[in-house]
Amino acid sequence: MILLEALPLLLLLGLLAAGRASPVVACLLALAASIPALALKHGMALPGLLAGETIIGAYLAIAPMTIVAGGLAFHSAVAAAPGSERKQPPDAARIFAAVVPLGAFLECVTGFAVGAVFALSSLRAMGVRGPVAAALAVQSLTLVPWGGLGPGTALGSALAGVPVQATAQVAALPTVAWMLLNLPLLWHLQARAGAAPDLREKLAQTGLMCLLLALLLLANWLLPYEIAGVVATGLTTIPALWRAQPPAGLRSALRLAAPYLMLVAALLGARLVPNPPAWHPFTAFPAFPITHVAVVLAVVAGAMLLARGRLPAGMDALRRARRPAVAMLLYVVLGRWLAGGGVAAELAQALATGLGAAAPFAMAPMALLSGIITGSNVGSNAALMPVQAALGAAFGMDPALVAGLQSFAGGGGAGMSAAGLAMLCGLLADGTRPGQVWRLLLPSMAALLFAGTALLLLG
């Protein structure tokens, strides 16, 4: 029975890892594979159960689906024309500015690995190519739990029954440790790119990284989680760009940042609206107010597309958003079927029985693997959060600790995912393969697991 209950997750992860099916097809097959175990557990009550959980899943998927579409439309409105990048020699300060604060800023606003695409474009303009360029670009995806204004974190929190702000606050703690541990790797990659940083540059980059991470912690305690990443990376981007290209770089950066600053202002303004009208069909799950970040992002993106005469680009972005949006919907529905049908709880109990007291230490590796395979924090949380939450409950763990750990490690894995690396290798078009990039990122994976395990030991 346990093998039958585990079949949908094993099938989903196996198909995605082998590259034998697209996310949509793999999830459809996983949904079909979940029915036998659910039928044995619920018998004639199965149709009603599946219908109810599908409706809940569709409701929970509205926000991430809208954010993906809005993020791609927003990027279409503000993206520079292809080939317009200014050619410059490789420089450690410029590489750091492009791949850490600015790349992460764009990722926090739009999600969908846009930050890595921007970073790769900047690196190529500096003549950086090959696996090193892809590995450096991935450094812009270290804040995936806050990427795209955090739909994956919100969804995971809802599935775990934890306030999303608490999940983000917990996830911020290992993120700080992980990013600090990533600094030596970042310097190694810069050296391989032909821009080895000297001691003074390393100290400057360490100071900027500490500034970013201190702002991230502070923002998650004082501001809505959706904009914590945007604020932390945005404020760090200004001094990083000033160092990288003074003084014209700052003026140019401010002009380029104007659309993002406008979006941040709109998001903050929406949060100031008291008691906005909201759709709240399920009391156990968060409401969907008219001031939700998904709505604000869609409105701002639409207004910018109209103002800049880029409606055709916006329509193309919406067409590109259909497939990931459908995949997100299916992931969430699968998560609800497994959780609502009791499968997730039984799998967690079996894991706890099999591993004994060591079972909680499997959480971070499982989350990392799910992120690498599913390629998104939404997919990772939808697939594993119900199991992780049930496993945590079996050991009496704080639900916020479990949700934060899953979001952190799953989000980190998503930044290094098979799909993301395949996209970056395709953009490089120089024969680079994902396996070459993964080998360069092994120290980052080890650092992530160390930070996640430390969270468990100290939590």
UniProtKB/TrEMBL annotation:
<feature type="transmembrane region" description="Helical">
    <location>
        <begin position="256"/>
        <end position="273"/>
    </location>
</feature>
<keyword id="KW-1133">Transmembrane helix</keyword>
<feature type="transmembrane region" description="Helical">
    <location>
        <begin position="132"/>
        <end position="149"/>
    </location>
</feature>
<feature type="transmembrane region" description="Helical">
    <location>
        <begin position="58"/>
        <end position="81"/>
    </location>
</feature>
<protein>
    <submittedName>
        <fullName>Uncharacterized protein</fullName>
    </submittedName>
</protein>
<feature type="transmembrane region" description="Helical">
    <location>
        <begin position="169"/>
        <end position="191"/>
    </location>
</feature>
<feature type="transmembrane region" description="Helical">
    <location>
        <begin position="93"/>
        <end position="120"/>
    </location>
</feature>
<feature type="transmembrane region" description="Helical">
    <location>
        <begin position="382"/>
        <end position="402"/>
    </location>
</feature>
<feature type="transmembrane region" description="Helical">
    <location>
        <begin position="351"/>
        <end position="370"/>
    </location>
</feature>
<keyword id="KW-0812">Transmembrane</keyword>
<feature type="transmembrane region" description="Helical">
    <location>
        <begin position="285"/>
        <end position="307"/>
    </location>
</feature>
<feature type="transmembrane region" description="Helical">
    <location>
        <begin position="203"/>
        <end position="221"/>
    </location>
</feature>
<feature type="transmembrane region" description="Helical">
    <location>
        <begin position="408"/>
        <end position="428"/>
    </location>
</feature>
<keyword id="KW-0472">Membrane</keyword>
<feature type="transmembrane region" description="Helical">
    <location>
        <begin position="328"/>
        <end position="345"/>
    </location>
</feature>
<feature type="transmembrane region" description="Helical">
    <location>
        <begin position="440"/>
        <end position="458"/>
    </location>
</feature>
